[in-house]
Structure formats: structure tokens, C-alpha cells
Amino acid sequence: MAEVFISYRHDDSEGWAGRLAEAIQIAFGETEVFFDMESIIPSAEWRRSIEEALTSCKVLIALIGPRWVSAAAPAGQRRLDNPQDVVRYEIASALHHGIPLLPVLVGGATLPQSAELPKELQGVLAYQALELPTRRWKRDIELVLAAVEKALGRPQVNSTSVAAVKVGENLDIEDVQAGDLAGIKGNKVPSGMSQIEVGKAARLKRSKLGDIVGVKITGRGEH
To answer: What is the number of structural domains in the chain?
Structure first.
């Protein structure tokens, strides 16, 4: 069963939810995310599916967009005021079962005031929220993934970020051997790999700055 539950409104933050689900699946595994569009089959009863998912999840991410509080039903009633509202039910159930919440603000949204929320949802305000603006997605998604990593108590399987790499800086190498990585500087070892040997015994000839010649990886970390 999935350990990360994503709660969101379709007409408020669907695009962000899909992108976030994909990032978490890459980082922790495809089966580790409960995302209603992919996780609830058409014939399933939604309330039962949510309850089953909540029994196994270790963190619920509450995506809060610009219309999360004000979204209304066709009759005009605010959705959060309806006890049968799916989003209200998901978050209230998580709070009732003591499942940690991670509020994530998207689309320029801010955290609601306590008076704007039904009493059973006010507990969401006790949790530290993170912002995930589109213009800073690459940077801030790392903060969200780090928070998920802490909640799950285990490291990411795959990193969604790429280390800053400088190729061929200050090279003074005469030849190259198969299995060597010549002239690379990186600031991060990719997740899941214990060590990368850079330029070990490398010799370069008839190459130019910017060329990458051979890669040698000495081991893999434990997942």
C-alpha cells in the first residue's frame, strides 16, 4: 500500500497534484503514492478506498491552491462546509487517525485562517506548510521531497535533481582509460550510489574541454 497520500481539489490544483505525484513516484517508487486519478478504480467506492489508503500511509500532503477554501458546489454551498466533501473527509480522517500532514501551498495560495475552516479541519494549521511556486519548482520540490523523506523515515530511491557539473575544468591529462571519468566536478553524489570516482588514473589525449570520457562507479548504496 502507498505511504504518501495526496489530497487536492481537481478544479483548484489538479495540474500541481499530477506533477507532484510524478516527482514523488520517481523519488520513492511508483507504488508509494496514493493519487486518486490513478489509485481509485472506476468501480470502487471512494470512501472505502480512501479509508484503506489512509491505514497504510505515513504522510498526507494537502495541496492548497487559490480556491481550496472558497470552492463552492453548484447550489452555492461552500464545499468545505459539506461533511461529505471528499477533501474535507480525507483531511479530517487523517487528523482523526493521527497521520502527519504536510500542507503544500500552490498557485500563490496562503494558509487559511482558523475561522475559515470547519472545526474538524483546524488541526491542519498546526503543521508547517511549504510553498511550491511554479517559477521555483526545481528548487522547492527538493524541500517537499526532503519533508516526505523525513516522514517516511527512509532515503529517496532516485534523486529528481541533477548535480551542477563542470566538465573539463583545468584539465592536464594526456590519455584516457576505459572506466575513467575525466575532468568532472560535481557537487552531489546521486541518490542510491555510494561513490563515484572522478578522474582516477585518467589520461586524456586528442580530446577537448567539455568531453566526458568513461564513467566508473565503485558501488551502490543500500535502498
So the answer is: 2
